Amino acid sequence: MTENIILEVLAEQKDEVAGMKFSSWTRRMEEELFEFDSPLAQVVIGVRRSGKSTLCHKVLLQHQIRYAYANLDDDRFFDLKTPDLNTLLSCIYQLYGQDINYILLDEIQNVEGWHLFVNRLLRTGFHVFVTGSNAKLLSSEFSSHLTGRYNEIRLFPFSFAEYCSYLKTDTRGLTTKAKAAVKAAWAEYLVNGGFPELMHIRNKRAYVQGLIGTIIHKDIRQRFHLRNVEALQLIANHLINNNCQEINYDELTRLFGIGSPVTTKKYVNYLMQAFLILQIHKFSFKSRERLRDSKAYVIDTGLIANRTDSLVGQNAGWRLENIVYIELLRRAAPLYYDIYYYKPSSRSKEVDFVVCEQGRTIELVQVAYDIDSPKTLSRETNALVQASNILRCDNLTLITLSETRETLLSGHIIHIRSALEWLLQN
Asked: The sheet that has 68-71: what strands, in order across it?
């Protein structure tokens, strides 16, 4: 690419940053994970349109850091190649001055060989902030080039607390009106999820279809040179329709006429690398069982019903479970906790989430939308108690839409938590 084109694009992007007013932007809990004076690259990864670049701009601006900005997802940078990155750096010096030492590179994975460029910037003393929409951004191949010199921050669409903050919903009010507002926000969030842009779009189906299409074609097909895109789309829709369920690779292979389960596993892995689908492994001390058995969750509940030909039922229980899993991932990230599901055999009662710290079980979490039925309450609490006895964990939580309280079963205290209170807690 010519220097003039790169200069023109970067100048427009610089003007865009100059007009940003971060003071009104919603606070994200991931803001606390940045290391501003660190020699490590600050790498923010997550699904498209979850707010990665906005998050980076916000933390840099509010800390009054002067930084250069290059959005490599600009269509005019489509033909940008590895040799052009040096020209890009030259243009940055021309626009921002030779004393600039902070730089934000948006959607860096669009340029082959990006890791070599970032590594050079780090060696020359730059503080580098990077965003990307593909987990391959930090695959073993690339991370080996960065030699561990990165701080990974995973960003999801809005949590329910962030959703309420964005809408300026009073979540602490005790009046009937305030409580009703929270419940109304929850009803919307349960169906439409937390993609920031989706909240203000009337034709949500078109937005979601466009988002899924971009992920499949830009983040997967182009990157992995995939030919059978139709099979990938069918698998994606199937896993979204059957969120919170175990993945049966043999069944998927037969259902969509794919050559082998090995190919099917590759397709599912591509969806996970693009953050469209999230995976959770089965709790087991046997590595083979952990790798073999897993369940699929969707990155955001707004993708479940807002799709063409979506015939998925209105299963509020699975939607709540999906939301709880993503919230657990958010909270586990700064603590380096691992999360599994527990099902030692086909006959045993399942516990939705096992939270572990360095192999030690520290909490068992069960999710049930409605426990008004004594039979349902008994089923969910008995599952927690049975797992507690085997895993030797007494921190038992049942998340539901009922009121917060405690119950005692077989000598075990079970903390029944209101889902809304649990999601809104700091």
From this structure: 68-71, 102-106, 127-132, 41-46, 150-155
Distances, alpha carbon 356 to alpha carbons 19, 84, 366, 384, in Å: 44, 45, 15, 15
d(CA 281, CA 258): 24
Rounded to an integer, what distance in angstroms lies between the CA atom of residue 44 and that of residue 310? 31
Would you say 189 and 163 are in contact if contact means Cβ atoms under 8 Å apart? yes
Q: What separation in angstroms does the CA of 283 have from each of 32, 334, 349, 357?
A: 30, 21, 13, 13
Q: What is the pLDDT of residues 110-140, one digit of tens each?
A: 888 888 899 999 999 999 999 988 766 656 5
| Helix, strand or coil, per DSSP, at residue 301 | coil
Q: Is 287 helix (H, G, I), strand (E, B) or coil?
A: helix
* Phi then psi dihedrals of residue 184, to 5 deg: -65, -40
pLDDT digits (tens, 9 = 90+) for 277-334: 999 999 998 887 877 899 999 999 999 988 876 665 568 999 999 999 999 999 998 8
From CA 26, how far away is CA 163, in angstroms rounded? Answer: 9
